[in-house]
């Protein structure tokens, strides 16, 4: 190749690269102008900074939710947006009218897109009901629905009581030792114990010995912490794989086991068939097991922890619930299946707890096509957050929303005028939580047993601070003092 030819090749290469860069820049400018055009029609959260966008308004997730609450209290929007630096807007719906549009749609969750919250937990949970979409989700949802039938849930009350016995004794022991007890760590172990027993028939003395590592940091895989993430995910997956394989082998050797004992979720998963007679693959079963373990214990632990906080903070409600529970149980210690519908005040109380301290503060959807929300057409390719916590504290939906009022959920207060999308602690639409009855039953048993045995008080000087993460946590834990009532000992 002559020098002239080489020079020509270089010139063509440089020109092609320059043309490509210019083309990309033109597309970016056009896209940015579209962002600016439609975002101007949506309320902006605070002042815009030319470099940081909206990020200068808060330094952590707790501050972000505080800024949002101030915005909603003052302007009462149904939708708002922030700018991620100066690059692109992030949109959030915060009212039943706007949340309904997304929750009733078939739009998927933000799994494969940078910044999508669900994308972060995909390596752990896989394509279970929480993260899958389309035909796969429809098929698996249909196959797994029988696992949450009342006939399947009824025997679990015995498990709830067995787990609660250990839970209450642990609380009593450490309260006597220290004068108070931080309950959230014990609640988390108890709900994990419940899920392992109910989903896998696995009794690993979790509450006595602590739990296997199920948590990991949001990190890149190439870092040392990223390698730790892979290690922990592999641990969880191997743990599930071993139990699944053992169960398959046992049922293959003796299919009549299904008629001899209480069915658990794993029995349903292993034996489920779709309309074509095909079952779930081993990978699909593992994804559903991991999803059950996460959704069934972490979210319920959050709800129970904040319910304990609320019992201690509002002694008048605590006393009212105690009287109801004691009236139902009389001299019995354990809760039976037929008792649960009689806990009317407790049920109202739990619902108000999940409104005040939203168990899952935020969910999101990915637009595969343009969608009109509150009169604004939002183009495809956008992630839209649904702030359940903002809906729960929107003054147009819940007047005096910062006051704790379980009577909001009394039969007299629930009218036909209340929008069904105004209260969605378990999401709504076709993708509502399949295990909500399981979770509510567990909460009622644990809390009924707790209040029947102990009087609860907050610890003076301790800070109770919400941290809206994947679930609602308390930054410094939830400490309470317990006094034995001598009714449940």
UniProtKB/TrEMBL annotation:
Keyword Lipid biosynthesis listed: no
Residues involved in heme binding: 433
Name recorded for this polypeptide: Cytochrome P450
Domain of life: Eukaryota
Assigned keywords, A-Z: Heme, Iron, Membrane, Metal-binding, Monooxygenase, Oxidoreductase, Transmembrane, Transmembrane helix
The protein's required cofactors: heme
Bilayer-crossing regions: 6-30
InterPro entries linked to this entry: Cyt_P450, Cyt_P450_CS, Cyt_P450_E_grp-I, Cyt_P450_sf, Cytochrome_P450_Monoox
Entry GO MF terms: heme binding; iron ion binding; monooxygenase activity; oxidoreductase activity, acting on paired donors, with incorporation or reduction of molecular oxygen
Similarity remark: Belongs to the cytochrome P450 family.
Pfam families in the cross-refs: p450
Protein's UniProt keywords contain DNA repair: no
């Amino acid at each position: 190749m002559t020098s002239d030819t080489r020079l020509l090749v270089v010139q063509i290469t440089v020109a092609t690269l320059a043309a490509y860069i210019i083309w990309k820049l033109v597309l970016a400018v056009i896209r940015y102008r579209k962002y600016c055009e439609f975002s101007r029609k949506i309320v902006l959260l605070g002042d815009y900074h030319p470099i940081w966008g909206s990020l200068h308004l808060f330094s952590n997730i707790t501050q972000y939710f505080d800024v949002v609450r101030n915005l909603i209290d003052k302007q009462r929007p149904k939708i708002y947006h922030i700018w991620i630096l100066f690059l692109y807007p992030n949109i959030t719906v915060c009212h039943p009218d706007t949340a309904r549009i997304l929750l009733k749609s078939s739009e998927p969750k933000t799994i494969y897109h940078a910044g999508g919250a669900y994308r972060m937990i995909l390596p752990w949970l896989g394509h279970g009901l929480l993260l899958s979409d389309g035909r796969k989700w429809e098929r698996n949802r249909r196959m797994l629905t029988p696992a949450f039938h009342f006939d399947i849930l009824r025997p679990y009350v015995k498990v709830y009581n067995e787990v609660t016995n250990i839970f209450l004794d642990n609380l009593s022991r450490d309260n006597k030792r220290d004068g108070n007890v931080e309950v959230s760590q014990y609640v988390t172990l108890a709900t994990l114990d419940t899920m392992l027993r109910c989903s896998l028939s696995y009794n690993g003395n979790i509450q006595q010995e602590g739990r296997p590592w199920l948590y990991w940091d949001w990190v890149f895989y190439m870092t040392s912490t990223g390698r730790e993430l892979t290690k922990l995910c592999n641990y969880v997956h191997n743990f599930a794989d071993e139990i699944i394989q053992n169960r398959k082998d046992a049922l293959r050797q003796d299919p009549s086991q299904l008629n001899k004992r209480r069915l658990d979720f794993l029995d349903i998963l292993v034996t489920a068939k779709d309309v074509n007679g095909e079952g779930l693959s081993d990978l699909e079963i593992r994804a559903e097991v991991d999803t059950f373990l996460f959704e069934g214990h972490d979210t319920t632990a959050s709800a129970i922890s904040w319910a304990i906080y609320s019992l201690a903070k509002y002694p008048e409600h605590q006393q009212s619930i105690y009287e109801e529970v004691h009236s139902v149980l009389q001299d019995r210690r354990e809760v039976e299946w037929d008792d649960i519908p009689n806990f009317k005040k407790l049920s109202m109380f739990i619902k108000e707890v999940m409104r005040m301290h939203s168990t899952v503060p935020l969910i999101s959807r990915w637009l595969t096509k343009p969608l009109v929300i509150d009169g604004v057409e939002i183009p495809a390719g956008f992630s839209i957050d649904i702030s359940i916590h903002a809906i729960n504290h929107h003054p147009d939906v819940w007047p005096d929303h910062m006051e704790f009022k379980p009577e909001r959920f009394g039969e007299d207060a629930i009218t036909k005028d209340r929008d069904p999308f105004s209260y969605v602690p378990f999401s709504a639409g076709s993708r509502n939580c399949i295990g909500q009855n399981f979770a509510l039953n567990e909460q009622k048993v644990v809390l009924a047993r707790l209040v029947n045995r102990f009087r609860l008080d907050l610890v003076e000087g301790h800070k109770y601070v919400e941290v809206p993460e994947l679930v609602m946590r308390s930054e410094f834990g939830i400490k309470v003092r317990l006094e034995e009532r001598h009714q449940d000992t």
